[in-house]
Specification:
Layout lengths: L5 E12 L2 E7 L15 E6 L2 E6 L9 E7 L5 H9 L5 E8 L11 E6 L3 H14 L4 E7 L8 H10 L4 E7 H4 L4 H8 L6 E5 L2 H13 L7 E4 L22 E8 L2 E8 L4 H7 L17 E6 L2 E3 L7 H5 L2 E3 L3 E3 L3 E5 L2
Parallel strand pairs: 7-8, 7-10, 8-9, 10-11, 12-18
Antiparallel strand pairs: 1-2, 1-6, 2-5, 3-4, 3-6, 12-13, 14-16, 14-18, 15-17
Length: about 325
């Protein structure tokens, strides 16, 4: 892991609301390739004594500056440390962008649900879709009150500039109460043919997802982004056990359009095997607590040792976390989409 760590300098700190700020990083030319990213991805930062994942609110077409947006939480040691201590010129250890919360096509019609700081990856998707795509974009954005709305001025400006393609529907708890399934279902009803992306606190995403399910939106067209606090330190190298490696399964893996075949030791996690073989398999936390290493089982079966991010529906569709998967069958075929 340590060879992937980069030290970046904070170029600017932007106060977004009373409890949220954006950190803008200058990416030097020598790190430009490592920090190429897709809209909706995140960075993993060393925030004081802890590691935390924060979504990029910038868009790839905005140049060499990357921006994350951080919102304070009551017990958020990472977010509070960043908001209290980071200034222009602060140097922070960062892992390259990761994550799969990104549209395959920005010409699709998009229905975006965000609550609070969940707007961060959604904003990156939204900006890219409007500036580079051709589809319609509808955003449902929930906050406590008007003062809590992150990127309010930018969203209003996009509404004026792309009036024929973009609509934002603000939901303020101070006015409308908490979002519920019935009312979110009514808001989403005209857009059931759109591709949906959801990000925010778990209760909000559960409610929004239920609304879309009741409208009959196919599971494959509903994408969720959620994070939990990392328990370990992904900035430190890990040592994996090597016992039992004489017993192997046969692995075929398709990565970046190329198929590879390897013997897969029964006690070896898939991600560790692929990295050992020199493949550029995506990952971030290595703890089963983010979706950066997600891949799909095409044939065979694996066991996930830990999983704090995938839903039962994801697993039923064959999605697994490479960093936590060991083989159960004698042959396993895997693809990265």
């Amino acid at each position: 892991m340590t060879e992937r760590v980069r030290t970046l300098t904070v170029a600017e700190v932007i106060a977004e609301t009373a409890d949220a700020c954006s950190l803008v990083f200058d990416i030097p030319p020598e790190h430009a390739e490592a920090f190429r990213y897709r809209p909706g991805q995140f960075l993993t930062l060393r925030a004081g004594s802890v590691a935390r994942c924060y979504s990029l609110s910038s868009a790839p077409d905005e140049g060499s500056r990357l921006k994350i947006t951080v919102k304070r939480t009551g017990a958020g040691s990472g977010s509070n440390w960043l908001c209290d201590n980071v200034r222009p010129g602060t140097k922070i250890e960062v892992l390259p962008p990761a994550g799969v919360f990104t549209p395959k096509s920005f010409d699709e019609d998009l229905l975006l649900f965000a609550a609070g700081s969940g707007i961060t990856p959604v904003m990156s998707i939204l900006k890219t879709a409007l500036r580079q795509g051709t589809g319609q974009v509808v955003l449902v954005y929930a906050n406590r009150d008007e003062r809590s709305v992150i990127f309010g001025a930018e969203l209003a400006a996009f509404g004026r500039e792309y009036a024929d393609r973009f609509a934002v529907l603000h939901w303020l708890e101070s006015v409308q109460g908490l979002p519920d399934v019935a009312r979110l279902r009514a808001l989403a009803r005209p857009f059931t043919t759109f591709e949906a992306f959801l990000c925010g606190p778990t209760p909000f995403m559960t409610t929004a997802r239920q609304a879309l399910t009741e409208l009959g939106m196919p599971r494959r067209r509903v994408h969720l982004e959620k994070f939990v606090s990392l328990g370990g330190n992904p900035f430190e190298a890990t040592t994996e056990p090597t016992t039992g490696e004489s017993d192997t399964a046969a692995l075929r893996v398709n990565l970046d359009g190329t198929e590879h075949t390897f013997p897969w030791p029964r006690q070896r996690k898939l991600l560790d095997l692929l990295l050992d073989k020199g493949l550029a398999a995506p990952y971030s936390c290595r703890e089963g607590q983010c979706s950066a290493c997600a891949c799909r089982i095409v044939a065979g079966e694996v066991k996930m040792l830990d999983n704090d991010i995938l839903d039962p529906e994801d697993i039923a569709e064959g999605i697994v976390l490479a960093c936590q998967s060991v083989p159960l069958t004698d042959e396993v075929r895997i693809t990265y989409e």
